[in-house]
Design a protein that fits this description.
Elements lengths: L4 H28 L3 H8 L1 H9 L10 H26 L19 E2 L4 E3 L5 E5 L7 E8 L2 E8 L4 E5 L2 H4 L3 E9 L2 E11 L7 E7 L2 E3 L5 E9 L11 E8 L2 E8 L5 E6 L5 E9 L8 E6 L8 E4 L10 E6 L15 E7 L5 E7 L6 E5 L5 E9 L3 E10 L8 E4 L4 E4 L15 E8 L2 E8 L5 E4 L8 E9 L2 E9 L5
Parallel strand pairs: 2-8, 10-16
Antiparallel strand pairs: 1-3, 3-6, 4-5, 4-7, 7-8, 9-11, 11-14, 12-13, 12-15, 15-16, 17-18, 18-21, 19-20, 19-22, 22-23, 24-25, 25-28, 26-27, 26-29, 29-30
Length: 488
């Protein structure tokens, strides 16, 4: 039912009014948060008034003494807390007073030795004629750091022994005699060592494995040191003995910047480079060795051997490499992996792997079950490869007998005879495929005495028409059979 136009206009007018009220209410709410302090005072005025009047509403009821003592006690408590906090934050002030030292004018002389052998005692004597019984700080400075020794001038002379921690480390030391904050004398000391003091030879020889051919090398690094582990000075002589097979050599090395090194390049033959070192004062080292391994192998050949050419799935074919050598005639290292790649007549790719023993890698591969042709090639990945080898396998049988029993629910396959009329070896696979009502089942069994029997139970294979396919040794037979219910 359609309402009159006047009623519809009235309804639309009311809706506009409601919408306008909602819009104005939202605007009012957005601005109302500015008035919240006044709203808080208005709502909570009684509580605020009570809090403000609480300390004074009963003040007139107090005695005159209480009226005076109350405020004064609060004042004294605040003053006490202020003093305690101030005292706790104060720190003791240290007033720096620069100490003034008396100046003396006289010639200062160093009578100490400027050079000392490492580990030896060093007597120090300084003449300070105008300094009498005053404390002197002696500052030793070097690359290791700074050390301060305190001594006293007695009768114008300072005498002491240099500490061992200084004379046990070689290097140049700068000496300053400090009177107060001023250096009154500068001196120097040099701690040295000599080749006759060599006590041990630090050495490294490596890498321990290099390749033949003369391009690869092992480096011998030598650092002769004394009893305090100080390196020897430059031009210290080291005698190095080298041995390779029947070859012996002697090399002379000299240190430079505390270190001596020599490169020992590989030979064309494999073997071990052995080195040892000795010094002029009779210090020797244990021998150090570096093994020379064969260089990259060169291409090689492969050959095959087998008992027969028939695809019986039982015999194995042996694939053997020639002796694999590098370009210098060295037999490659034992354990080098050789990868055999096999491509069948149908295009399938097979793989076999073998490790070398005395340069030869042998792989054994089982014969196929069906007539086939293989192309075999061997690789040492990225380094060398062999020739291609063709192997043909002949069919071992051309027919196999079948016998059906018990309403076709037992199928006897065999006996299957081989190429010489002998029975096939045990373990030959025979596959039966059954198709019924759109479903396919596959059963694989293995021969024993060249025979195998398939038993088709009715709770697995109900009665009906079946398409059957038997496969073995590349031979296939297809037939249709009706399976009936088993008789009890």
């Amino acid at each position: 039912m359609q309402l009159p136009e006047s009623i519809n206009n009235g309804i639309r007018w009311l809706n506009r009014i409601r919408k306008e009220i909602r819009i104005r209410r939202k605007r009012t709410y957005r601005k109302a948060w500015l008035m919240w302090p006044f709203k808080f005072l208005w709502v909570n005025w009684l509580v605020i008034r009570r809090l403000l009047l609480f300390p004074f509403k009963d003040y007139g009821k107090l005695s005159p003494f209480a009226r005076v003592v109350g405020p004064l006690s609060t004042l004294f408590l605040g003053l006490f807390l202020f003093i305690v906090i101030k005292k706790s934050n104060e720190t003791d002030k240290v007033i720096y007073t620069q100490r003034v030292y008396e100046k003396f004018e006289c010639e200062l002389v160093s009578n100490s030795q400027k050079t000392v052998q490492v580990g030896h005692s060093h007597q120090v004597e300084y003449s300070l004629p105008c300094y009498e019984n005053v404390p002197i700080n002696i500052l030793y400075s070097s690359g290791y750091g700074s050390i301060v020794i305190r001594e006293t001038v007695r009768n114008g002379i300072i005498e002491y022994n240099t500490p061992e921690l200084i004379t046990e480390k070689i290097g140049d030391y700068e000496i300053n005699l400090m009177y107060g904050e001023e250096s009154i004398l500068k001196d120097s000391l040099k701690v040295i060592t000599e080749p006759k003091d060599i006590d041990y030879i630090e050495s490294y020889f490596g890498p321990r494995i290099i390749l033949a051919g003369g391009n690869d090398f092992s480096m011998l690094t030598v650092i002769p040191v004394d009893d305090y582990d100080n390196p020897m000075p430059d031009e210290t002589r080291i005698e190095v003995h080298e041995n390779f097979k029947e070859t012996q050599k002697v090399h002379e090395q000299y240190t430079f910047d505390f270190v001596s090194f020599r490169r020992f390049y590989s030979y064309n033959q494999t073997g071990k480079i052995t080195v040892s070192m000795n010094t002029d004062n009779g210090i020797t080292t244990k021998e150090k060795t570096s093994d020379i391994y064969p260089y990259s192998p060169k291409d090689f050949t492969i050959e095959q051997s087998k008992e027969h050419n028939f695809a019986d799935g039982n015999e194995v074919v042996s694939i053997k490499t020639s002796i694999i050598e590098d370009i210098y005639g060295n037999i490659i290292q034992n354990g080098t992996m050789v990868h055999y790649q096999i491509v069948t007549k149908s295009g399938k790719q097979l793989a076999a792997f073998a490790k070398t023993v005395k340069g030869i890698a042998t792989a054994k591969i089982q014969h196929p079950y069906t007539e086939d042709s293989w192309t075999i090639q061997a690789f040492i990945p990225g380094l060398a490869e062999s020739n291609s080898l063709e192997i043909d396998f002949e069919q071992i049988a051309y027919d196999f007998p079948l016998t059906f029993f018990k309403e076709n629910r037992e199928i006897q396959v065999g006996p299957i005879k081989s190429y010489m009329g002998q029975l096939l070896p045990n373990g030959t696979a025979v596959t039966l495929t059954l198709q019924h009502n759109g479903k396919t089942s596959e059963i694989t069994q293995y021969t024993v005495g060249a025979m195998t029997t398939f038993v088709l139970r009715d709770f697995y294979f109900p009665s009906g028409e079946y398409k059957m396919t038997l496969e073995t040794l590349g031979l296939t037979k297809q037939f249709e059979k009706t399976l009936s219910d088993e008789k009890e």
